[in-house]
Amino acid sequence: MAANLVLFGPPGAGKGTQAKRIEQVRRIPQISTGDILREAVQAGTELGLQAKAVMERGELVSDALMVGIVRERLARDDAAGGFILDGFPRTVAQAVALDEILTGRDPLVIIELGVPDQELVERLSRRRVCLRCGATFGAGAGDMPAACTRCGAALVQRSDDREDVVRERLRVYHEQTQPLVAFYEDRPSFRRVEGNQPPDAVHAALGVAIDEALAAVRRQPPPGG
Ligand code: AP5
User: Is 73 a catalytic residue?
Assistant: First the structure.
């Protein structure tokens, strides 16, 4: 059975950090809608031009645009054997569209990564990202490196990591994304993982949650059976 994963949680919960680790371990692609949008902004494409100001205000890009992007991305060959959606769905309308996109494919495993707001504000004020390769820094207890330890390029603060924008992103999360819990929680493949613990502990807890959820899905009778 393909591991078709949705990882959702508030800004700074560690979705990107953990999705990259799951990608390595399970050999399924991370699909980060935030990264797709940031690449488009950097490349100056039509999508980037539409998304830039919205992202800088901490608001959400339109459902129609995001659903189109994800529909196209999930149709690619590398997503046929499983994927990790990081940052999508973010509204109930996106979740409804995702179910429709995945008709006929293996059921979703949905993981909510929970972290209290105050910890998120602190994490995002510390976060720095590499200008060239996009690597993220800030989870370690030590000092921030002077440059990217992977490629040597400069580290910068994301423009939406200013405290006023972070607070708006959190407000939008609670208003528009948290209703996904009610949308998904009755499914046997829904799990909540505590994200307010060291990254290795989160990774271990996610591994257990994903395996349990996949097992629960396998125990389900087939549709109409
Ligand atoms: P997106 O890039 O998805 O931003 P986000 O959801 O706000 O998530 P972040 O990337 O800020 O955080 P994360 O959870 O990935 O945490 P990370 O691992 O980096 O979206 C950006 C914008 O694009 C949105 O605001 C919206 O405008 C638009 N957008 C995207 N998708 C959309 C959609 N579907 N619909 C509409 N609009 C959309 O970790 C954060 C920091 O904490 C790092 O410094 C990290 O090193 C550190 N850290 C990680 N884990 C731990 C830990 N366990 N303990 C301590 N520190 C940790």
Answer: no
